[in-house]
C-alpha cells in the first residue's frame, strides 16, 4: 500500500482514512463491539465515556469514541440530557485529586513548579480530556459540533450545563483558531454540494433560488468568500458576500436586483460587505467574522488596487423591538412627544416617510446612547463591527424595504466603514472604553435635546443576544 501511495495510485487522505477504519475495526474486535449492532442498543453513554478515558490503546480508543458519538446522535433527548448532565458532574474535576494537589503545593517542600503544574492538571475537568478523545474518532469534530448544538438547545432550561458549554468553547477556540482556517473563494463553479449550503445557510438576505444565487456569485462585480476547517472540508463555517460598486450604497434592493447592469471589477472603487452568515450553530461564541472581514479586505485590496473604500451594508435586527419597548416607557430618554406621535402614526398604518426624521434621530440615539449594563451598544451587529475596528458611517432610511426589514428595523440599514489606517485605533477605543466611533453625519442626527441625556439600562437590555453578522 505504501508503494501505491508513493506512486500516486492511492491518495494520502484515502490511505489515512483506510488506516483509521482498520484501527477502528480492530478496536471493535478487541472490545467485542459488533459493527452491525444498533448504536443505541443497551449502550450506556456514561460507561462508554469512562471506558474511553480508561483506555490507552489507539485502536480501542478510536472504536469507543466512534461508538459513543454514534450512540449520542441516535439517542432520544432524555438520554442526551442525561449524558450532558454527567459531563457536568461525573466528568467534572476530581475533587480528591485537587485537595491532594493543594496540600502538596502548600507544604512548600522543594520547588513548587512541578506541584503547581500538578495542581493545574488536577483542576482540569475530566470532560475536557473526554472531548479531546472523542475528537479522534473519524468525523469526531463534526459530531462534537453537533453535540454542542444539542447542548445549547438545552442550556436555557438547564443552566447547570453552563460549565460544560464553557469547556466546549475553550476547546473549540483552540481547534478553530485562525491558524487552522482556510479562506476559499466561492463562485459559480464551486461544487453544487457547497453552493446548496450557501443557499441554506444564508441568514441575512434569503437566497430565493439558483438564479438568485447565480446573480450573487457569477457577475464580475460580485465576490463571496468562506472559511473552512480541515476537519469539515465541505462545510463552510462562515461566509461573506461582497458587491463591488462605484459608491457606498444606501439600500440592499439595487444590489440584489437580478436586472441590474454589472460593472467591470476594475471600475469599482468600493467593496461592500452586504451579508455575513455563520453556518454552524454548534460553534456559536467562537469568533470567525473578525478574521474573515480583515482577510477579505486584504485580499481584495491586493487583487484590485482600484478599491479605496471598504464598507458594510448592515441590518439593524433589534432596532424596532428596542423602539417599541422605549415607547412603552413613559420616562424614556430617547422618546419625546413629537417622536411618540410620529411612531404611533406608523403603528396605525401611516406613511412611514412622514416619520423619517423621527426614525433617523431614534437610530442615532440607539447606536450612540443605548447601552447594555456592560457599557457596550445594545445592537449586536454594532458590537461586532465596532469591535472589529469599523466606524459607524451612515444611517440609511428605508435601506431594506422588505417585509423582514420593515419588521425588524422600520427598514433602517447602516454602513460601517473599514478604514485600514484607523482599524486598530477604533478597535482599541471600543475595547478599552466602549467608544462608538461614528461619522459627523451620524452624530448630527442625534437631536441636541437628547444628546446630553443618557439612557438608563433597563432589564430588557440583558436579553439581547450577541450575534456576529
From TrEMBL:
* Span of domain Malonyl-CoA decarboxylase C-terminal: 179-418
Q: Where is the Malonyl-CoA decarboxylase N-terminal domain?
A: 91-176
Q: What is the top-level taxon of the source organism?
A: Bacteria
- InterPro entries, sorted: Malonyl_CoA_deC, Malonyl_CoA_deC_C, Malonyl_CoA_deC_C_sf, MCD_N, MCD_N_sf
Instruction: State the protein's name.
Output: Malonyl-CoA decarboxylase
* Species of origin: Bradyrhizobium agreste
Amino acid at each position: 500500500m505504501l508503494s501505491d501511495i508513493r506512486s500516486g495510485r492511492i491518495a494520502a487522505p484515502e490511505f489515512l482514512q483506510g488506516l483509521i477504519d482498520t484501527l477502528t475495526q480492530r478496536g471493535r474486535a478487541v472490545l467485542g463491539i459488533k459493527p452491525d449492532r444498533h448504536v443505541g442498543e443497551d449502550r450506556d453513554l456514561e460507561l462508554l465515556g469512562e471506558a474511553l478515558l480508561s483506555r490507552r490503546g489507539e485502536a480501542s480508543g478510536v472504536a469507543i469514541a466512534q461508538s459513543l458519538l454514534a450512540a449520542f446522535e441516535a439517542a432520544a433527548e432524555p438520554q442526551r440530557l442525561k449524558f450532558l448532565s454527567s459531563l457536568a458532574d461525573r466528568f467534572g474535576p476530581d475533587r480528591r485529586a485537587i485537595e491532594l494537589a493543594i496540600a502538596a503545593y502548600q507544604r512548600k517542600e522543594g520547588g513548587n513548579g512541578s506541584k503547581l503544574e500538578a495542581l493545574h492538571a488536577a483542576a482540569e475537568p475530566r470532560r475536557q480530556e473526554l472531548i479531546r478523545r472523542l475528537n479522534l474518532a473519524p468525523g469526531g469534530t463534526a459530531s462534537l459540533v453537533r453535540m454542542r448544538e444539542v447542548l445549547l438547545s438545552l442550556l436555557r432550561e438547564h443552566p447547570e450545563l453552563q460549565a460544560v458549554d464553557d469547556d466546549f468553547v475553550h476547546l473549540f477556540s483552540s481547534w478553530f483558531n485562525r491558524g487552522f482556517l482556510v479562506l476559499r473563494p466561492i463562485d459559480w463553479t464551486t461544487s453544487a454540494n457547497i453552493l446548496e449550503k450557501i443557499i441554506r445557510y444564508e441568514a441575512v438576505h434569503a437566497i430565493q433560488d439558483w438564479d438568485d444565487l447565480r446573480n450573487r456569485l457569477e457577475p464580475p462585480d460580485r465576490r463571496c468568500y468562506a472559511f473552512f476547517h480541515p476537519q469539515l472540508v465541505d462545510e463552510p463555517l462562515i461566509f461573506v458576500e461582497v458587491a463591488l460598486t462605484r459608491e457606498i450604497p444606501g439600500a440592499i434592493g439595487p444590489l440584489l436586483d437580478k436586472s441590474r447592469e454589472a460593472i467591470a471589477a476594475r471600475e469599482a472603487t468600493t467593496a461592500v460587505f452586504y451579508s455575513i452568515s455563520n453556518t454552524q450553530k454548534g460553534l456559536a461564541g467562537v469568533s470567525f467574522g473578525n478574521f474573515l472581514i480583515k482577510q477579505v479586505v486584504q485580499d481584495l485590496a491586493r487583487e484590485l488596487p482600484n478599491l479605496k473604500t471598504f464598507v458594510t451594508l448592515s441590518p439593524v435586527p433589534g432596532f424596532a423591538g428596542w423602539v417599541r419597548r422605549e415607547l412603552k416607557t413613559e420616562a424614556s430618554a430617547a422618546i419625546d412627544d413629537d417622536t411618540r406621535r410620529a411612531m404611533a402614526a406608523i403603528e396605525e398604518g401611516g406613511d412611514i416617510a412622514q416619520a423619517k426624521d423621527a426614525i433617523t434621530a431614534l437610530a442615532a440615539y440607539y447606536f450612540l446612547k443605548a447601552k447594555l449594563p456592560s457599557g457596550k451598544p445594545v445592537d449586536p451587529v454594532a458590537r461586532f463591527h465596532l469591535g472589529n475596528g469599523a466606524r459607524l458611517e451612515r444611517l440609511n432610511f428605508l435601506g431594506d424595504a422588505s417585509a423582514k426589514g420593515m419588521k425588524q428595523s422600520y427598514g433602517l440599514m447602516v454602513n460601517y466603514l473599514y478604514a485600514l489606517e484607523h482599524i486598530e485605533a477604533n478597535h482599541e477605543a471600543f475595547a478599552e472604553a466602549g467608544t462608538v466611533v461614528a461619522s459627523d453625519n451620524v452624530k448630527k442626527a442625534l437631536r441636541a435635546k437628547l444628546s446630553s441625556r443618557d439612557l438608563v439600562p433597563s432589564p430588557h437590555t440583558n436579553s439581547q443576544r450577541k450575534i456576529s453578522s
